[in-house]
Write a structure and sequence with these properties.
- It is built from 19 helices and no strands.
- It is mainly α and 395 residues long.
- Helix 7 crosses helix 15 and helix 11 (180-213) packs parallel to helix 13 (245-259).
- The N and C termini lie far apart (47 Å).
- The mean pLDDT is 85.
């Protein structure tokens, strides 16, 4: 396992540096590293690492979400309002509709199978989007109109919406019918996640404040460990009650920021930023390792065409979310580009229909793999290459 970790970090960082030299996003090098080292090409990674890959990816995602929460200005988010809420479900809905319209014609599958495949591909990847939005907030690009905050909050929420739809469509493809309770659980999950996060953040910040006032100084490094441990508990809550662990983590970090001295929250955000340097490599290399490159050839050119057409539907959904906002044309184009990348959700659920014995399982996995390979680099390149030209930098 230690040898595998050495491969992941050394080769991943080397490939990321090569991509950076070529003016490409570092994520491309990390994804390629995972594909090459993974079980479907060179098979150099220990099976034990791959067995806990999903947990390791979640840990890395927790780190960047905590950094995001500690950097998020809620006053800015309040200014956005309606568009931020719409970004959580409208673009994904439009993309699924795109698959329902296009896939039966071009791929010769049923409408129900098209809906299932659409629900796999519809989730934006917070692992790709959130780090970039945090960077924009740090560099103050688009913050005058709270654009990074809006995109980041939407990207953190739409996964819940899409995964609920996926589980419903999967049941329907297995002949079990739709479950109305699943749809009711969407707002319940979001609201409960925010409430729990705020409560935990309040208790945590009070604990830090109490110790500070009584002379029991807790080092920032210890605070990081405590916050991480509690975040893992919040994720585990998802298995016990209807709640969004990821939203709870962001809400907790926001509450800690609000109730702490600015210098403390800034230092905590900086430390999580340093942790992200290692977590980023682990996350994207393991996402790449989950990609079965063999399935890309089986899907064919038609599948690529379907993915691109569905992205056009998604773009229309984002454009609708931007109606009656103060954003100009350039800023709206940026929002569309920032909502393209897919990776983590597709790697996690792409193989589920095949394992469940659904007729379109092989095709679903093939399109999920293609979706990652096309949209993750495309979205990352689009964000990195355009943000300085499309967004205003707040002085």
């Amino acid at each position: 396992m230690l040898t595998s970790l050495a491969f992941i970090f050394i080769v991943g960082l080397a490939m990321a540096s090569i991509c950076a030299k070529l003016k490409l996003p570092r994520i491309i090098g990390m994804l390629l590293t995972g594909i090459i080292l993974g079980p479907y090409v060179l098979n150099l990674l220990d099976p034990n690492i791959l067995a806990i890959s999903a947990d390791l990816r979640q840990m890395a995602l927790v780190i960047i979400l905590l950094k995001a929460g500690l950097s998020l200005d809620l006053n800015d988010l309040k200014k956005v309002g309606r568009p931020a809420l719409m970004m959580a479900f409208v673009p994904a809905t439009f993309e699924i509709i795109g698959y329902i319209i296009v896939a039966p014609i071009l791929l010769n599958i049923s409408i129900l199978e098209a809906a299932l495949i659409g629900s796999i591909l519809a989730a934006v990847s917070p692992a790709v989007v959130v780090p970039r939005m945090v960077r924009l907030m740090d560099e103050r690009y688009g913050t005058n109109k709270s654009i990074p905050q809006m995109i980041m909050s939407g990207a953190s929420c739409d996964d819940i919406f899409v995964i609920v739809l996926f589980s419903t469509f999967l049941s329907m493809n297995q002949g079990q019918g739709a479950n109305l309770t699943s749809f009711i659980n969407i707002p319940v999950s979001i609201i409960s996640g925010i409430i729990i996060g705020i409560l935990v953040g309040y208790i945590l910040s009070s604990f830090f404040e109490y110790n500070y006032e009584h002379g029991h100084l807790i080092r920032n490094s210890m605070k990081i460990i405590i916050i991480l441990a509690i975040s893992f508990f919040l994720l585990a809550l998802e298995d016990l009650i209807t709640t969004s662990g990821l939203l709870a983590i962001v809400a907790m970090a926001c509450t800690v920021k609000i109730r702490s001295l600015p210098i403390i929250s800034q230092r905590l955000a900086a430390k999580f930023g340093k942790l992200w340097l290692a977590a980023e490599v682990l996350l994207f290399v393991l996402v790449g390792a989950a990609v079965d490159i063999r399935y890309t050839m089986k899907a064919g050119i038609v599948a690529i065409f379907v993915i691109l057409l569905a992205l056009m539907f998604r773009s229309i959904g984002v454009a609708i979310c931007m109606l009656k906002t103060p954003l100009n044309i350039k800023e709206r184009i940026f929002c569309i580009l920032a909502y393209l990348p897919k990776a983590t959700v597709q790697a996690a659920i792409g193989s589920v229909p095949l394992a469940a014995g659904v007729a379109c399982g092989q095709l679903a996995l093939s399109i999920a793999v293609l979706g990652i390979l096309i949209t993750a680099p495309l979205g990352a390149i689009a964000i990195d290459a355009t943000f300085k030209h499309l967004l205003f930098k707040k002085g």
